[in-house]
Design brief:
eight-stranded parallel sheet; two-stranded antiparallel sheet; 279 residues; globular; alpha/beta; 37% helix
């Protein structure tokens, strides 16, 4: 099975499904990544803030780098020019690779100039260390500002997106400006899997609840990066092709939107060390 791709502004192809690695470490993350890459996956998503890049790098060493699509992210506290460059170089070193297919600003940080951050991203792009530049957890307002000052196209906005949190205005803005939408927490950190409608459809189609939710997202052209500590679940999560959800059932999932985020809540805990904003 070959996973379909979406085209980025650079012409690079990004697989519609990747393996997420948030909150996984040690042998667990290595087993997850290996289960993915031994199956149909070719797309791995990590971040310096996940503290697992070195373990992932060890796993990736057994595979052909040119066949993989690899994403990492820079922490909000490291968004000044020099820190962006240093963070990327450190991520590359831990991952054991010469370049990233996609490098994301993990969270917006209003205490640091967005222009400065994106100037550093452009430098990384010019040096060939980063093939595509993107953002994560940006609103349409923040994304439009980034697009205004960036010398490199903003290829991706990785956002919280699932049936309970569909964000139509943000998704529409991304589509209008050729930014690929990538769903972080596409399963609402498993919360949406217990939804009555999701459960009903899973039984009806003889699929897992996760497959139903992920199929709904990829049908919309949204890239998904589900994560699991279970190799079996990792393999199940990519089995989304060769079967279809009926249009009426897709609409039933559309109707589940309740504007309910599991992590991207309106305010931030700025004291957290991921932001690095001193009082």
């Amino acid at each position: 099975m070959t996973v379909p791709t979406v085209e980025l502004p650079s012409g690079d192809e990004m697989p519609l499904i990747g393996v997420g690695t948030w909150n996984l470490e040690g042998e667990t993350v290595q087993e997850s990544v290996r289960a993915a890459l031994d199956d149909a996956y070719a797309h791995v998503d990590t971040a310096e803030g996940y503290m697992n890049e070195a373990e992932i790098g060890e796993a990736l060493a057994d595979y052909d780098r040119e066949e993989l699509f690899l994403t990492s992210k820079v922490l909000p506290k490291n968004l000044n020019y020099e820190s962006v460059v240093q963070s990327c170089e450190a991520s590359l070193d831990r991952l054991g690779t010469d370049y990233l297919d996609l490098y994301l600003i993990h969270w917006p940080n209003p205490a640091i100039s967005l222009r400065e951050t994106l100037d550093a991203m452009a430098t990384l792009h010019d040096r060939g260390l980063v093939r595509n530049v993107g953002v994560s957890n940006f609103s349409a307002y923040q994304l439009s500002a980034a697009q205004h000052v960036s010398d490199v196209p903003i290829a991706v906005n990785q956002i919280e997106f699932h049936p309970w949190f569909q964000r139509p205005d943000l998704v529409e803005y991304c589509r209008e400006t050729d930014v690929v939408v990538e769903a972080a927490a596409p399963l609402a950190r498993t919360e949406v899997l217990g939804d009555d409608t999701v459960q009903e459809l899973a039984e009806q189609y003889d699929r897992t609840p996760a497959q139903i939710v992920l199929k709904w997202a990829v049908e919309k052209g949204v890239v998904v990066i589900p994560k699991s500590s279970s190799p079996d679940h990792v393999r199940e999560n990519v089995d989304l092709f060769g079967w279809e959800l009926d249009e009426d059932d897709l609409r039933r999932l559309d109707d589940l939107d309740r504007d309910y985020p599991v992590y991207d809540t309106p305010a931030r805990d700025w004291t957290g060390d991921v932001y690095g904003i001193a009082e």
